[in-house]
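Lecture 7 notes: from sequence to structure.
We start with the chain below.
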Amino acid sequence: MRTPGPPPANFNMAAHVLAHADRLGQKIALQIVGDAPEQFTYAQIKAAVLGTATGLRGQGLDAGDRVLLQLGNVPEFPITYLGAIAAGIIPVPVSSQLTAPELTTVYDTIKPALIVHRKENAKDLGPAIRTQDLRAFWTLSPADFVMGDPGRPAYIVFTSGTSGQPRAVIHAHRAMWARQTMWDGWYGLTETDRLMHAGAFNWTYTLGTGLMDPWSVGATALIPADGTPAERLGALLHDTNASIFAAAPGVYRRLLREALPPLPNLRHGLSAGEKMATSLRDHWRHSTGTLVHEAFGMSECSTFISGSPANPAPEGTIGFAQPGRNVALIGPNGPVEPGTPGIIGIHRDDPGLMLGYHNAPEETAARFQGDWFLTGDIGIINDENAITYAGRADDMMNAGGYRVSPVEVEDAITAHPAISEAAACAVQLRTDTSLIAAFYVATDVIDEDELRAFMQTRLASYKCPRLYIAKDSLPRGTNNKLLRRKLRQEWEAAHGQA
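Predicted structure tokens for the same chain:
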């Protein structure tokens, strides 16, 4: 497997992503598929990126300035993102779904010199340009890539906020160099692949796995047009001859509600964003004849633990540290032995690790224990170095003195044929009493006694939920991550334990 050494001393992330553009020229780099199809060659992408760099400089932006991007899944998004980085300007992608108050909070946090948007709620915040104005930049004279220290800031992303208030995370140009560990260690990605990603462009999973990585190896990126429902993705995978499909578990769940067409060119799926239930993975395998390779990561370091076509994750685990990554399970006194739960940590020298939280040095320092950045997620490593994911440290439940992983409970309950998704959390019944509750979405009414009996065949009695609550849907964040905390808070508020 490829393991990248240190990045070049003179480096630009956008130049690295487009390193194959001159050689590949007329090969299709990007296809927007669905109701508004478009396609762009490598030559067109590079020209548009460097023209955009010229255009942004023409707006008065200098190297180090920040530009806020709120564009949705349109080609202008990745082109403007790379155009800014090419010019040494720092892009800050955010969800197109943000409301005006949310956008104001982001604006006040990062103080951008320019907003690029397609929504009216951005117009009064400061200097702004609309999406339709960006294409005029594409034909401008190309700027030169601004080269420099690979450790200087390249872009800022916001965390999804599952563990509290979303934070602005600063990443260096070298973060793109570090992503080479994923090409073999997760994707099995080659120049001949056609990779379809079903996610929002502002999400690092989509920007990286769906666009930047395919372009870095010379592959073709396939992106469903804005607003494409998950139910149509099967037909699009068939029609575009996609070889790899990437999405969050929730998208897989919706996609599999309908029978899939034959997908003879599909080699495998990729999943990230949250733990995928075993039942969902099995459903995909039975429907397509292919595996899903899962990865663990976060906004602060992208993905760094995964299974891959060359080294699939053993059953029940999320896989292995990618080659070249320095990962450990951390306890109170440092790395723990195999079989002992610990917080998943990544070494501070990893080139993919963030530079820090914007204007929050104390909060940044608090995430480290010695040389280890602590993710806040619990894992257990075995003697073969495969890691089992046990959930967020702050989501862990206590039952009779035993620590219970919500992921384990959720995996068990979603094995029920009528249950499509579930969330487990500890809820406070009284001041001194908490118990495990399972919230679930089902296709039919399930007798509670039947469900209790079903769970008792799959889990030790102390792990079995004491409460079962049917829901029409489960709360999720903008990146489709399950919000267990919100379920707990809502239940406790309704039952007098707010």
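Points to note: The chain has a mean pLDDT of 91. Residues 278 and 412 are 9 Å apart (CA to CA).
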